[in-house]
Design goal:
mainly alpha; 5 helices; 56% helix; globular
Length: 123
């Protein structure tokens, strides 16, 4: 499905496009298993192409290329009511300060990922 984004461009959120991105950036050696296709299809059906696309962008930002991480990001989107990020607080005469809610699902999930990474090292 093509949709117009905030910048006036048409964006392709079809399953074919989502699969292509997954195959290129998430799959090991570009090989997608039957189980991954099925799970990706479930995510697409449950959350829609635009949310899955945005979750993939989020995963790429943090260099966490797993279906488990995509699922957590999508659950966070649902808990927050959408893919929007928190807006910075307006500060007069200085840089904007971002306020992160301690109970934000994405923040909690990122902490879990970082803690697991720190506990297991870089391997």
């Amino acid at each position: 499905m093509n949709q117009v984004t905030g910048h006036g461009r048409h964006q392709d959120f079809s399953f074919g496009r989502i699969y292509s991105i997954y195959e290129k950036h998430f799959a090991v050696d570009g090989k997608v298993s039957e189980f991954e296709v099925q799970d990706l299809g479930f995510l697409f059906d449950d959350y829609g192409g635009e949310w899955v696309y945005e979750a993939m962008r989020e995963a790429a930002r943090y260099k966490v290329f797993t279906l488990a991480y995509l699922t957590k990001v999508l659950k966070g989107f649902r808990a927050r009511g959408g893919t929007q990020k928190e807006e910075p607080l307006q500060v007069v005469g200085g840089q904007p300060i971002y306020q992160v809610a301690e109970d934000d699902p994405i923040t909690q999930q990122l902490r879990e990922v970082y803690q697991a990474y720190a506990a297991n090292g870089s391997s």
